[in-house]
Write a structure and sequence with these properties.
mainly beta, 2 domains, two-stranded antiparallel sheet, flat
Length: about 80
């Protein structure tokens, strides 16, 4: 985190995408954020229909943008607020 910018770094999947090596890292930068949340992945819950976005998201493991009721008021989601908010 740097101010209101969140940078997500992750290892690229060299097993599935052979143009990458095991140590290759990708990153996505989110500018003008006011909060974020990190949580464990749960593909079993996804496929059982227990995840809050599995009915509207394109596929498991894909990045996507959602809008509308994001359930920001659910206390168990443990949002992290960024500076200034």
């Amino acid at each position: 985190m740097d101010g209101n910018t969140v940078t997500l770094r992750f290892y690229l999947n060299a097993s599935k995408y052979h143009q990458f090596r095991e140590e290759d890292i990708g990153q996505i930068v989110f500018n003008n954020c006011w909060r974020y949340r990190l949580g464990g992945t749960n593909d079993e819950g996804w496929y059982l229909g227990q995840c809050r976005f599995n009915k509207i998201a394109p596929a498991w493991g894909q990045f996507y943008k959602v809008s509308g009721n994001l359930m920001h008021d659910v206390p168990s989601l443990e949002w992290k607020l960024l500076a200034g908010f």
